[in-house]
Amino acid sequence: RRTVSYEPRTGKELWSVGYGDGFSNVPRPVAAHGLVYICTGFYQPELVAVKLDGTVAWRHGRAVPLTPSPLVVGDEIYMVSDNWIATCLDARTGKEHWRQRLGSNFAASPLYADGRIYFLSEEGETTVLAPGSQFRHLGVNRLEGTFLASPAVSGGAIYLRSENHLY
Questions:
Q1: Binning pLDDT at 50, 70 and 90, where does residue 99 land?
Q2: Are the C-beta atoms of 166 and 141 separated by less than 8 Å?
Q3: Which of 35, 37, 38, 39 lies closest to 52, judged by CA?
Q4: Which residue from 101, 136, 95, 100 is spatially nearest to 115, judged by alpha carbons?
């Protein structure tokens, strides 16, 4: 199981990183601080931080998502596992700042907007947190329905899509 980086103009392989028995990489890789952050998928999920030359900077193996993509805000990387646990790590070193149970299942990726981080559960509960290395819970909002899609932002509004409605 590997993630491969290609030169966009030529298709030449630049580097590849292997990892255990993971498969089905659903979360999209994200990049910041000269690193690409990759969730390795099912079986043995890890968050792997890869330098742009293809060397692994660090790995984190606790409460890594199978579906939601990680989110980088400032010097921190945030993720929420499919089964309730949000984690904040130092984006450069992988040092864990905090880990907190949010109490729902997650498929949607977290969203950063207007200075807040939003975690939308499958059950329609949005947990709002302040970014930073300390856990700061700002509130919870609830909507009816099942939510699998990640929130979107446009024109100063956040759009949430359930199985039957667009909010």
A1: very high
A2: no
A3: 35
A4: 136
